[in-house]
Amino acid sequence: MKITCFLPCRKGSERIPNKNIRPFSSYRNGLIEIKLKQLSKVKEIDSIVLSTNDEEIIRYAESTGIKNLIIHRRAEELSSSQTSTDDLVNHARSLVNEGHILWTHVTSPFLNSDAYKKIILSYKEGLSQGYDSLMTTSLIQSFVWNERGPINYDRSVEKWPRTQTLIPLHEVNSAVFLSSVDIYTDRNDRIGENPKLYSLNKIEGHDIDWSEDFEIAESLIKAKIANV
């Protein structure tokens, strides 16, 4: 099974300036340094395609000496905050011609090499069980409402049930999407009709989207609660 990692990493984060390569904890080149080191240790990944328009990231990536790293200079029209995920799906498919695509992000620093290996193994097992793809999630097992009321429990049965008895909901955390190239071609999507939901714990699923997330992640490392 040939697996190619697609790692999109554009320049110009609006919420956290230079988010992908600014110093993070003890890592001078930040999140991109962490993620490339993690991915390079996963033997199940045949190649890593880094798609970026950031010259600073490109210079760092070129200096790593990672043998299976392919650096793609992404066109500016595919590198804005307005670029749709559908456009990136087509972009990923244009860069990978065969096998399976593992789509991941640098913003999941605590998803380490061992975690990727387990995810790939679970994906392979899932294919034999009738699943056609995999995506990672974070479990929500608490009181969830919308404007009409609760959506994961029935107040006419019990107004405040124990949270342990609530049916967990899966929040897509975007740490990993894994599927075949055929799904990208046939469905123009990064998951199929029957994806396996692979839940991560709160540390692994931590996503750096806002400045507070960046600071929390650094604090977790400093307190030795998490490591990369």
Automatic annotation (TrEMBL):
| Family matches, as InterPro entries | CMP-NeuNAc_synthase (IPR050793), Cytidylyl_trans (IPR003329), Nucleotide-diphossugar_trans (IPR029044)
Superkingdom of the organism of origin: Bacteria
Q: Which UniProt keywords apply?
A: Nucleotidyltransferase, Transferase
Under CDD domains, the record lists: CMP-NeuAc_Synthase
Whether Amino-acid biosynthesis counts among this entry's keywords is no
GO MF annotation: an example: N-acylneuraminate cytidylyltransferase activity
Q: Which residue spans traverse the membrane?
A: none
* SUPFAM superfamilies reported for this sequence: Nucleotide-diphospho-sugar transferases
- The protein's name: Acylneuraminate cytidylyltransferase
List the top taxonomic levels of the source.
Bacteria, Bacillati, Bacillota, Bacilli, Bacillales
